[in-house]
Specification:
By secondary structure, the chain is mainly β. The protein is 6% helix and 72% strand.
């Protein structure tokens, strides 16, 4: 958590100059759902080149560590409805080793093309500490009385902690994959003395092309829907 917060803070103060204008910070919890994705496993020295179709991932957003996010925005004096924002999102994905999947390719130098239990080869493929995004967002907002409608377009890296167990050999590490994209739409409702209630829907997309596993790499696509709620304040 310390490393994640430090990375967020450095990014935030680099992109936002120290000028007199409106600043806004927010914190939120939420629920994420990552769509099924093909998972490619390549291990040249073991003569494995496998494609697992439609792997299902669980999010476990409300189990420790929780899904959470923090962000800080700077809104310009000349254009008060537009701003720049740094945002860190901690989500998670977990594979289910008991699910039945279709696999094709080369397994130990022999062709394979059949339905198997995922855990027969991949006992685990997860990003639990986590499936982390660090976005630089363009923010637009419009106020209706006590309610602000806000939209976000974001670009930045995915910083996952990839945990894999392939053929019972475990490997885990932090990585960086770029680019990841975000599209978000939400509302902020005036609550008390500059504090607002936040509700927002997000869609994020990233292609993981070189996740390190034992003796090779893995590839997958992360298409994730997020519903978040929290608090923001401005100063």
């Amino acid at each position: 958590m310390r490393k994640e917060f430090l990375l967020f803070s450095v990014t935030f103060f680099i992109i936002c100059p120290n000028l007199k204008a409106e600043w806004e910070v927010g914190i939120f919890l939420g629920k994420a759902s990552t769509s099924k994705s093909d998972l490619k496993i390549v291990q040249p020295s073991r003569k494995n080149d496998l494609l697992f179709q439609d792997i299902e991932f669980k999010d476990k957003s409300f189990s420790t560590p929780l899904y959470y996010g923090i962000r800080g925005a700077y809104f310009f004096n000349s254009y008060p409805n537009f701003g720049l924002e740094a945002e860190f999102i901690h989500a998670k994905i977990h594979s289910n080793a008991s699910q039945m999947v279709f696999v094709s390719g080369i397994r130990k130098d022999e062709p394979i093309d059949s339905a198997i239990r995922l855990g027969d080869i991949v006992q685990g493929f997860s990003m639990t500490h986590g499936f982390n995004f660090l976005f630089l967002n363009l923010v637009g907002r419009y106020r209706f009385d006590k309610v602000k409608v806000c939209g976000r377009l974001g670009l930045g890296p995915l910083i996952p902690h990839t945990e894999s167990v392939i053929d019972n050999i475990k490997r885990e590490q932090y990585e960086i994959h770029f680019p990841a994209y975000q599209l978000a739409l939400g509302s902020e409702i005036d609550f008390w003395k500059g504090v607002c209630l936040l509700l927002e829907y997000k869609y994020t997309y990233v292609e993981v092309k070189d996740a390190k596993i034992a003796y090779g790499h893995a590839e997958m696509k992360g298409r994730t829907r997020h519903l978040v709620f929290g608090l923001t304040t401005r100063f």
